[in-house]
Design brief:
Blueprint (H helix, E strand, L loop, with lengths): L11 H4 L5 H27 L4 H22 L3 H27 L20 H15 L11
Helix pairs in contact: 2-3, 2-5, 3-4, 4-5
Length: 149
Amino acid sequence: MGTTPDPTASGSARDTRNTGPGRLLIAVYAVFAISATARAGYQILTKFSEAPLAYLLSAFAAVVYLVATVSLAKAGRTWFKVSVAAVLVELLGVIVVGALSVFDSVNFPHETVWSLFGRGYAFIPLLLPILGLIWLYRRRPAPKPARAS
């Protein structure tokens, strides 16, 4: 009969990001994925001509939140890398869109998720990727063992 491998032997226990506080992080990302998708969909369908750049960036934010949610919930090195990329893109997006919405208000006549660094969402969009990166750093996969030749 087959034996169940010890998850700690390969370091896969550390790969899991969906335990403990990670569950709360995933839940917050899921809420943002849903809300950003709904907001972007409504904005694009009803008033796209008023602020096309802002609304397309809202849709992009929704995709980033969706990818972050799914990748944080999955175990494994590949999903870890996807999570890191998604959260870094999110942080960069919040900073760039936040700055543009302050200094180029003409292209941002209506708020998006990342406008003014997430002010419309109590600045959670600015704090969330920082917390996400800290969590990912603490739950990074163990180094692969060296191969014997």
